Amino acid sequence: MSSSSPGTSKKIDFLDMGRYKIEKLPKREKSSFETWMAMAGGPLAIFCFIFIYNSDISFLQNIDPSLLGKTALARYKLLGAEAFSQSNIALLAIFAAAIILWISEAVPNYLTSLYLIIAVVLTGVTTETDAYHQLGHKVMWLNILSFVMASMLVKTQVAKRFALWFIVKFGKNATGIFISFIVINLVLSAFISATTAKAAILLPIFMVIAAVYGSTGSKTRNNFGRNLVLQNLYQINISAGAFITGSGANLLAGSMIAGAIGMGDDFPYQQWMNAALPLALINILIAWFIGTKVIFKIPKAETVPQIEGGMLRLQEELDKLGKISITEMKSVILFVAVLLMWVTDTSHGISKTAVAFLGAVIALTPRIGVVKWNDINIPWHLLLFSAGAYTLGAALKTTDLAAISVNALFTSMGFSKETPFSTLYLMLTFGMVFSAVVFQSKTMRALVFVPIAIGAAQNFGYSILALALPVALLIEHVYALPFNSKPAALLYVTDQYSWTDTFKFGMTMLVIGWILIIIWGETWMRFLGITPNGVF
Q1: I want to staple 280 with a disulfide (CB 3.0 to 4.6 A). Which of 242, 343, 378, 475 is the partner?
Q2: C-alpha dihedral sign at 132, 136, 142, 147
């Protein structure tokens, strides 16, 4: 299929995978509301910081020591209520200012993290050592090493070969194509920790397929194309939630939960996967049915290729890769070995970080490995952003601000110690799911809602795992609007769907996601022993 623009004889080849590379896609322009938010964010953050920092927040003066963790209790005994409360006020001011900057994107998110880190030092919330060493946190190392491993799959083109082969082999019709992408996304999520990287790998493939089935964007949109792109957006995000290594936000949430329940800061890979993988698969299958059969029902005419022999272009792309090389085989063997070690971490006791360290070292070793350091794509701006998030998380843990604030908030709302578990569960999961419409960062949502869930569990005497893990399993629901995540922004510029389309599909799936996590807590999570008997 080709077309020409007015005033030029140049033809557009919609089956050319090269035209769908990220660097060739147009940048999404900010809406007027987003532009206004960016302009107002800076002054508003400064005002909130000054106002809160200089406020007399009386509820922080009335601390019940029984609510405090060991570290915070020791600090309380040493400094007394007044000094302890001042630390909490300072952290609350920093927290509020950081959230405003992150949401409004008045400055880059990594710069907000740097502001945050120096602010907790200058206000005395935590020591320089505690603030700065979060960049060396072992979960930060796991993030870095995961990017090394992911770069190995991208550089050797193993991931691209697998995706092309699967589509060519099993994508014989519309249904086969949709099912193929479900499998591809789940498999890639086990190996690649960056959702944007997965989107970059898959986008050229599903764009060519959309063109083959008659959807080239803008005026030639059809329901097959809408579904193909929106389903991939959904699957890229939700499949990442199936594995704790699926994103940095998952790792942050797991670290906070593990620390709160006395497991150090290394949440077991297998325990997360047991709870999350079946849920992710059910979500994805429901989304496929809702999208293709209900919201954007695909007419029979769109279920067959519109270009005769169009799918052969994908076979040609696969053929260009040639026979699988020794380097590719080594990459596959190495990553499968790492994955097996992660999955069995509760059996051998070697941490996820140590396993990734071994894998990365082997991958980089000359003659034995498969990549060189210059081949590695590590997004340091994201790591600096994560370092700020970990610093804030460490400060919240030190001051116990989450537990104290939750106690004060729920008390003011009339909640008592007899508040049912189900009430808290419904409130926390609802807040986590639908906050995705407003927030622009999964890491930020994890940083806000997981500590609240932990604080609520501590305050009301319920299992931390039973409240906080379901909240964490909702982190990846970031697809309703184009600014909700980087894959959402990237796929929106393909012009295969409108804001109305993504909002309609996204809000439907957010509601279904919330209903599913409620059912999940009562059924599968109880079977796994995460939800205690008698609390629902």
Answers
A1: 242
A2: positive
The secondary structure of 159-213 as a DSSP string is HHHHHHHHHHHH-SSHHHHHHHHHHHHHHHHHH---HHHHHHHHHHHHHHHHHHT
If you average pLDDT over residues 501-510, what whole number do you get?
95
Lowest mean pLDDT, pick from 56-65, 95-104, 302-311: 56-65
Q: How confident is the model at residue 66 (pLDDT cuts 50, 70, 90)?
A: low
**Dihedral angle sign, alpha carbons of residues 364, 365, 369, 370:** positive
The one-letter amino acid code at 181 reads: F
Collapsing DSSP to helix, strand or coil, 453 comes out as helix
Beta partners for residue 4, in sequence order: 11
The residue behind tokens 């987003």 is 34
Q: What tens digit of pLDDT does each residue of 433-479 get?
A: 999 888 777 888 888 899 889 988 887 888 999 999 999 999 999 99
- Strand duo 2-4 + 11-13: pairing: antiparallel
DSSP 292: I
56, 82 in Cβ contact below 8 A? no
Half-sphere exposure of 529 (CA within 13 A, CB side): 1
Residue with tokens 């609520």: 456
Mean pLDDT of 502-519: 96
261-282 pLDDT per residue, tens: 888 778 999 999 999 999 999 9
- Calpha distance 55→303 (Å, rounded): 62
Specify whether the CB–CB gap between 449 and 253 falls below 8 A: no
Report the C-alpha gap between 164 and 184 in whole angstroms: 10
The pLDDT assigned to 32 comes to: 80
Lowest mean pLDDT segment, chosen from 56-60, 115-119, 372-376, 505-509: 56-60
Interatomic CA distance for residues 450 and 472, integer angstroms? 6
Q: Confirm if 162 and 187 have CB atoms less than 8 A apart.
A: yes
Query: Span 117-127, mean pLDDT?
Result: 91
CA angle 241, 283, 419 (to 5 degrees): 80
For 350, the token pair is 């070697």
- Measure the CA–CA gap between 527 and 515, rounded to whole angstroms: 18
Distance CA 505, CA 502 (A): 5
Alpha carbons within 13 angstroms on the beta-carbon side of residue 508 total 18
Task: Tell me the three state secondary structure of residue 2.
Answer: strand
Cβ atoms of 326 and 177 closer than 8 Å = no
> What interhelical angle do 380-399 and 401-412 show, nearest 10?
70
pTM: 0.81
Per-residue pLDDT band at 425 (split at 50, 70, 90): very high
Those residues whose C-beta lies under 8 Å from the C-beta of residue 423, and which sit 6 or more positions away, are none
Q: Tokens for 528? A: 């796994």
Answer whether residue 376 shows pLDDT above 50: yes
Q: Is 266 left (phi over 0), alpha (psi -120 to 50) or beta?
A: beta
Both tokens of 372, joined, read: 């060189």
